[in-house]
Amino acid sequence: MIPRKALALGAVLVAVSIGTASAQEPQPNDLLLATLWTQRSVEFKGNALTVYALAKIRLDQALADKNWTAAPVEQKGDYQNLPPAIVLDVDETVLDNSDYQKKLAVTGERFKDATWNAWIEERRATPLPGAEGFITTVLDGLHGQVILVTNRKQSQCAATEDNLRTVHVRYDRILCDRAGNGDKNPRFSAVIEGEPGVTPALNILIWVGDNIQDFPSLNQKATGDFADFGSHYFALPNPLYGSWQGVPPR
Ligand SMILES: [Mg+2]
Known about the structure:
By secondary structure, this protein is an alpha/beta fold. The chain has a domain at 42-96 and 125-236: 3-Layer(aba) Sandwich (Rossmann fold). The chain is 39% helix and 13% strand. The chain is built from eight helices and seven strands; from the N terminus they run αααββααβαβαβαββ. The chain has helices at 4-17, 30-40, 42-64, 98-107, 113-122, 131-141, 157-166, 185-193; strands spanning 84-88, 95-96, 126-127, 145-153, 173-177, 203-209, 233-235. It has a five-stranded parallel sheet with strand order 5-4-1-6-7, with helices on both faces. The chain has a two-stranded antiparallel ribbon with strand order 2-3. α7 (157-166) links the parallel β4 (145-153) and β5. α2 (30-40) packs antiparallel against α4 (98-107) and α3 packs parallel to α6 (131-141). The longest helix has 23 residues, at 42-64. The two termini are 12 Å apart. The chain binds magnesium ion (MG). The site of magnesium ion has 7 residues, from loops.
């Protein structure tokens, strides 16, 4: 449970910082507190850096282990000799959109496709701590491929690529949500299998995301020991939004 007093304080802090403080006390707001934690806390930065630092260590281990794959079910045949690759989500994994969430928190508006699309068109998302360094290691140090799989729509892909370029994030391919159904699994399969004459089949060594659906065949109903997390799967903290919001409280 989040103390209401703390939430109200958070609202005041943000209101002051953006110059909209008024005599009327702002209403408590969960999204506002989550945005404050994401934007202001050193703990968020530390979490993100920790995730990417461990992913780097695992990559070194992966390259020393010929049989390493992060897709043991999906990867077929002689996968050991395929080019190595990592797959990353974009939003709240590589790009930080917390300024969009702050706007929602301060105005009280709900998420809408139109305002989200306008934010993407602004191309103002910033890089997540650790992301660019990790990607550089993969591309330059390990000569691996970097594949971005995002649920941004195909119509938003060009602006997304502009934004990534602006913050110096490089990659080999980006797959936006051409089908418009939010299901990344067909795109994961396409990345693994390649396309003859267009793109090679790849051996995926690491997956990075902020949502359980950024990992193959997983969703909020996932059970088990989650042993892949910290070895082959790496999850960034995202208290702002996600598929977790549809899960009933315990
Ligand atoms: Mg994401």
